[in-house]
Amino acid sequence: xxxxxxxxxxxxxxxxxxxxxxxxxxxxxxxxxxxxxxxxxxxxxxxxxxxxxxxxxxxxxxxxxxxxxxxxxxxxxxxxxxxxxxxxxxxxxxxxxxxxxxxxxxxxxxxxxxxxxxxxxxxxxxxxxxxxxxxxxxxxxxxxxxxxxxxxxxxxxxxxxxxxxxxxxx
Amino acid sequence: xxxxxxxxxxxxxxxxxxxxxxxxxxxxxxxxxxxxxxxxxxxxxxxxxxxxxxxxxxxxxxxxxxxxxxxxxxxxxxxxxxxxxxxxxxxxxxxxxxxxxxxxxxxxxxxxxxxxxxxxxxxxxxxxxxxxxxxxxxxxxxxxxxxxxxxxxxxxxxxxxxxxxxxxxx
Amino acid sequence: xxxxxxxxxxxxxxxxxxxxxxxxxxxxxxxxxxxxxxxxxxxxxxxxxxxxxxxxxxxxxxxxxxxxxxxxxxxxxxxxxxxxxxxxxxxxxxxxxxxxxxxxxxxxxxxxxxxxxxxxxxxxxxxxxxxxxxxxxxxxxxxxxxxxxxxxxxxxxxxxxxxxxxxxxx
Lengths: 170, 170, 170
Description:
3 copies of one chain form a homotrimer.
Chain A: E1 2-7, H1 13-23, E2 27-32, H2 39-51, E3 57-60, H3 65-72, E4 77-82, H4 84-93, H5 97-110, E5 117-123, H6 134-153, E6 156-161, E7 164-169
Parallel strand pairs in A: 1-5, 1-6, 2-3, 2-4, 4-5
Antiparallel strand pairs in A: 6-7
Helix pairs in contact in A: 3-5, 4-6
GO molecular function, one term (chains A, B, C): adenosylcobinamide kinase activity
InterPro entries (chains A, B, C): CobU/CobP, P-loop_NTPase
Pathway (chains A, B, C): Cofactor biosynthesis; adenosylcobalamin biosynthesis; adenosylcobalamin from cob(II)yrinate a,c-diamide: step 6/7; Cofactor biosynthesis; adenosylcobalamin biosynthesis; adenosylcobalamin from cob(II)yrinate a,c-diamide: step 5/7
């Protein structure tokens, strides 16, 4: 089962993903894409860590997500990735177009074939006003395209608002 | 019945809330959280007032919402609060963390137990790009958490887009 | 059939609109509202053009949309307008309130009565944080009101997220 969970900021999407991962009764590998570069980010990361069961394994992978999935996915295990938009943002901040394309392709090409269960969490960022900032527009474009590609390959897609889930697929 | 109505800017959420309040055939107390600090805001407030039936009672309460609800809620009456995001914004602009926490707690702790019917209107603000501005990020976080808490305690949650309602709960 | 397709940036709304237009097996007139004023816009326009069947007719109309629809709508044909938010943005940038009101009214008054099938595509822009910029706020207001008016007059309204459609109406 490949599942994509989308939602706005503070929509409860991470909590839903964690509940669903826990409910599988399988081993859970949590892949965190966040990089702690300031106090606010440290706080956000710590808050999320405290919410997770202590026996889950955690892997921090801000950039090479496709490789991390290929190396770690296996039958009888759930991988929860939280979240894709931070990973995308990390990639775009490298300002290296060919690196960006390689890593994006790496994820999109392995996703469907990975063994075991996968739950991907990502932020909806495209339903507000289009920003002045060119990098922000680029980020919105890339996030939207990524969501479309992954949604097309996912068995289940859920949109979370105020902690409540709407099933977009199937 | 406790109901939360969410939607983007100019989504028709206030109109839907007013229709639902009117359809109950009960007395309606309208609690406005807006503060008129400039011409644009005056205009927005006046436009909303003209849309409401003249026999509804109106109470302006930009800050002490929990207290206003506790003092005014009663069986056989509907209270319509429009809107929570402005109240949250008013609280955050006070820049007094303990005042903020007290007032937030006051609302969250009384909500479920209030007598009579309650319709809360609030803006979805977290589905666009995350802003540069730290206060705006804080506001998005607080709005998202508030929506999650209230949605969990509500009997009915509705999301409005282009004047059209989607039932998120039950 | 009058249809409104809403969705965030890069949500797949244009592709869905094109699929639905193609599926009618009727002649398709594509009305583009984009004005190519810079390289980024040229690139976005070219990308959209390459996605469309070459036998579709294309009309570029950044401002006089109501007139273009009245002159071209006919039985047995589909008109696809992509997108309303760009048209609205073009109108607002003219900074001529009476021109703006005339053109908006022209669209809203003819829409329901136009012969043939119509598919309108528009961006959801009101579910992020309210921007500081007064013109941006005005744009959000106008887009929201326009969507409400057109949704009320449409037979079908669809919201697209990550390429997946949710039926808002009927």
